[in-house]
């Protein structure tokens, strides 16, 4: 039987050549003696490698056989010929289905599945797959193809469409634009290969708002969500964890974390009040285990917040409050804020305290700019009398913030010692109904 070279075997130098999955599917396969075996039905890979080699070749025998034959990827002597040639005899192949549960079938698990391209936060569809033939004749999965050309190729229209486009617009972007995404950025799971929907790039993922990324992850099946979340940078994971609406999602990600220390690091990166909220939703034994992995100072702050009753100022507040002594100058205050800025989520309202940490005044960035660098904060600050107490209800806190139009309100104990701060976003769900009722009564 004469062998023909496949038209899609694009040379990439001595390193190897690329083949398209759509051109391999349904291609005839012969054994080493030239006997026709059948046609290629699918290929399998093992998950966990950046560019996994083809493990098994699934062959539909000629005729109406109700089964498939399986050959090892290493039993293929020539992937680029038509028909594909095996180095094994027909008698050496075995019928059956996939036995290794760490493997997935490329066509069955990947084609037509949705992929979220985080560089643009948009949904794409896998139209084809790009395979690379490397040294020794091994074939590896290199890219997923989410472009229009991949779909045209898979439908068998490539020759006609490309020819027409070249005739009328030889410099069209369509002819030179391939929308390929490296397989190493794709995070599928064996438990749910159909959940292969997220392409991850640490460089581009920071462009997506944490709330949007949390929404994307919440839509994924649980089996797909965990490896993706654990692949995020710690700071990104902390912001995303704060945005999950479903408490069960937080529980699944932390209660069954493969690395409790990493989960504790994520909690330490979060504002203490947010970390306390998350831990309060976990089973007690899980929360205690995570607290034991946290730095003692962070664990103490979070545990203190968790001791307050739910929906009170003490439970809502954060202990990450920037305080200054009254003797500090404006220039010194600016320098300290520059040093603290990378670690702070809220950089607007600041408090002046005495030696016992009792609240005596407050100022914001605007007030700092209004005074000379040599002025002390005692002259810059505004005397502060508006505050709430840890035992005050969330609705009372919301009423204070709404009444005085505050971005944040300090929390002090019975002796006037500053113990925390509540920002408007912490009580937004309480503030909005109050504001709405006032509007209705106008």
- Apparent shape: elongated
Largest sheet: 8 strands, mixed
Mean pLDDT: 81
Structurally, how many domains make up the residues? 4
Radius of gyration of CA atoms, rounded to a whole number: 31 Å
CATH classification class of the largest domain: Alpha Beta
SSE-based structural type: alpha+beta
Hey, roughly how much beta strand do the residues contain?
Answer: 15-25%
Head-to-tail CA distance between termini? 89 Å
- How many β-strand stretches? 24
Unreliable runs: 1-15, 194-198
Could you name the CATH topology of the largest domain? CBS-domain
Name the quaternary structure. Answer: single chain
Spell out the CATH superfamily of the largest domain: CBS-domain
Summarize the helices and strands and which ones pair or pack.
Elements: E1 4-5, E2 10-11, E3 17-20, H1 21-24, E4 28-30, E5 36-46, E6 54-61, E7 69-72, E8 76-78, E9 81-82, E10 84-86, E11 94-95, E12 103-105, H2 106-109, E13 114-117, E14 122-125, E15 128-133, E16 139-145, H3 148-155, H4 158-168, H5 173-176, E17 180-182, E18 198-199, H6 202-205, H7 210-219, H8 222-231, H9 234-243, H10 247-255, H11 260-269, H12 272-280, H13 284-293, H14 296-306, H15 313-316, E19 323-325, H16 330-340, E20 349-353, E21 359-364, H17 365-369, H18 377-380, E22 382-383, H19 394-403, E23 408-412, E24 418-423, H20 428-440
Parallel strand pairs: 4-10, 13-18, 19-20
Antiparallel strand pairs: 1-9, 2-3, 3-15, 4-5, 5-6, 5-12, 6-7, 7-11, 8-10, 13-14, 15-16, 16-17, 20-21, 21-22, 23-24
Helix pairs in contact: 7-9, 9-11, 11-13, 12-14, 19-20
């Amino acid at each position: 039987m004469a062998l023909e070279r496949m038209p899609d075997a694009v040379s990439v130098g001595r390193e190897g050549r690329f083949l398209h999955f759509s051109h391999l599917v349904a291609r005839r396969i012969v054994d080493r003696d030239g006997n026709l075996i059948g046609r290629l039905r699918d290929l399998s890979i093992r998950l966990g490698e950046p560019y996994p080699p083809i493990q098994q070749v699934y062959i539909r025998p000629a005729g109406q056989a109700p089964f498939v034959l399986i050959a090892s990827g290493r039993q293929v002597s020539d992937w680029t010929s038509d028909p594909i040639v095996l180095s094994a005899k027909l008698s050496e192949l075995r019928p059956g289905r996939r036995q290794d549960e760490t493997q997935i079938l490329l066509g069955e698990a990947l084609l037509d599945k949705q992929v979220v391209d985080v560089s643009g936060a948009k949904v794409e569809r896998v139209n084809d797959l790009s395979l690379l033939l490397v040294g020794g004749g091994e074939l590896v999965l290199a890219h997923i193809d989410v472009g229009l050309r991949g779909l045209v190729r898979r439908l068998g229209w490539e020759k006609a469409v490309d020819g027409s486009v070249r005739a009328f617009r030889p410099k069209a972007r369509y002819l030179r634009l391939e929308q390929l995404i490296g397989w190493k950025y794709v995070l599928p799971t064996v438990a749910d290969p159909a959940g292969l929907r997220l392409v991850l790039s640490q460089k581009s993922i920071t462009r997506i708002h944490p709330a949007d990324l949390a929404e994307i992850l919440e839509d994924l099946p649980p089996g797909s969500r965990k490896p993706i979340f654990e692949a995020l940078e710690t700071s990104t994971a902390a912001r995303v964890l704060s945005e999950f609406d479903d408490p069960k999602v937080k529980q699944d990600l932390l209660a069954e974390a493969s690395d409790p220390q990493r989960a504790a690091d994520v909690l330490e990166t979060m504002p203490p009040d947010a970390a306390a909220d998350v831990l309060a939703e976990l089973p007690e034994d899980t929360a205690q285990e995570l607290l034991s992995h946290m730095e003692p100072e962070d664990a103490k702050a979070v545990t203190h917040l968790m001791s307050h009753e739910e929906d009170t100022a003490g439970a809502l507040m954060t202990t990450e409050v920037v305080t200054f002594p009254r003797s500090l100058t404006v220039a010194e205050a600016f320098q300290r804020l520059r040093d603290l800025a990378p670690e702070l989520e809220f950089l607007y309202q600041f408090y002046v305290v005495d030696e016992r940490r009792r609240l005596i005044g407050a100022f914001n960035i605007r007030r700092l700019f209004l005074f000379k660098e040599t002025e002390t904060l005692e002259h810059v600050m505004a005397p502060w009398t508006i505050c709430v107490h840890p035992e005050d209800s969330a609705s009372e806190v919301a009423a204070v913030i709404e009444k005085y139009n505050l971005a944040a309100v300090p929390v002090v104990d019975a002796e006037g010692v500053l113990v925390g701060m509540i920002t408007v976003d912490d009580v937004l769900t309480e503030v909005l109904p109050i504001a709405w009722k006032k509007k209705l009564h106008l």
